[in-house]
Amino acid sequence: MRLLAGTVYDRPPTCDRCGRPESECRCPPEVIPKSGKPPDKKNVKLAVEKRKKGKVVTVIRGLSVRDDDLATLLLDVMKGALPVWIVPRLALAAAFPGGRETAALAVGLAAILGHVWTFLASFKGGKGVATTVGVLLALSPLAFLAFVSVFIVTVAATRFISLGSILGALSFAVALAWSAPGGAHGLTFGFGVVVALLVIARHRDNIRRLLAGTERRFEWGRGAGR
Question: Is the pTM of this model over 0.85?
Fold first, then answer.
């Protein structure tokens, strides 16, 4: 018996996919994930736990890592890397104002901005870190290595993903001063500074929490501090 049966609000249950009443639905059976339960049927536990030295983290248990998480991450990286690698090699890039270097920087910035403010989500996107990493991979392998190294060391030492991203952004800007054409006076270094500031600005809420001591830590294997 439905809760509102017999009232003006009584409505038969409908299918979430086709919108028809369940008695008229002809949708194929939903494929159950390997975990045995669809995400909306899983039991999730949220708890605040204490760690060593009195640290407190929020732990989420019961959610498994999605199978397509890695694929999504790689896609975001390739969104930045492929345009920056392909466009400067096209004949038309030579006619771009400033030449091939400027063409590479322009498409790299477009890829990052398109990810951060995507029109597919009402101009609300991610923080642009993965796409920025892809741009760096194609633009300057040394800057890419600097970002990844600083990110890994920072997260390993502090378990703050946000801090790793922020310091990584600063490190790739510094690396571009050494590796980019024209050094600290070149366009590529200026591009790196702008992108680093953009990444940091997208983490402004995280910075506030870091300064207040309320930023949550990443807990591998025991749940993720969110």
Answer: no
